[in-house]
């Protein structure tokens, strides 16, 4: 899955609008605008949560032959599928 790499940060822009952006050495990219303050932390943490969930599922797949029987793993896979737009 491709998404904008780098740390997603929440900030207020010059007009007072809440935005999520990536600001690294290569570029500045706005991920989304007009973000409600109560969603900012969740949205900015999305890439980290995706990578952590993917690593957890991969760990289950390689270390537990019964991973597919786990409700937790099933929910994690469903969340990854949703994030990947499948």
Description:
It is a single chain. The protein is α+β, with helices and mostly antiparallel strands. The longest helix has 24 residues.
Structural topology:
Blueprint: E1 8-12, E2 18-23, E3 28-33, H1 40-63, H2 71-83
Helix pairs in contact: 1-2
- Sum up the overall morphology in one term: elongated
| Portion in helices | 40-55%
* Sheet with most strands: 3 strands, antiparallel
Q: In terms of structural class, how would the helical and strand content be classed? A: alpha+beta
Low-confidence segments: none
| Portion in strands | 15-25%
Residue-averaged pLDDT, rounded?
87
How far apart are the termini? 11 Å
Q: What's the SSE pattern?
A: EEEHH
Number of strands: 3
Structural domains: how many? 1
What is the gyration radius calculated from CA atoms? 16 Å
Annotation field: number of helices: 2
Quaternary status of these chains? single chain
| Spatial ordering of strands, largest sheet | 1-2-3
Structure keywords:
single chain, 86 residues, alpha+beta, 3-stranded antiparallel sheet, 2 helices, 20% strand
Give me a quick take on this structure:
This protein is α+β, with helices and mostly antiparallel strands.
């Amino acid at each position: 899955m491709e998404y904008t790499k780098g740390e997603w940060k929440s900030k207020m822009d010059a007009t007072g609008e809440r935005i999520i952006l990536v600001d690294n050495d290569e570029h500045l990219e706005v991920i989304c605008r007009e973000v409600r303050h109560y969603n900012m932390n969740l949205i900015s943490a999305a890439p980290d949560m995706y990578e952590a969930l993917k690593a957890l599922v991969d760990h289950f797949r390689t270390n537990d032959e019964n991973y597919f029987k786990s409700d937790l793993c099933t929910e994690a896979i469903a969340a990854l599928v949703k994030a990947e737009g499948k």
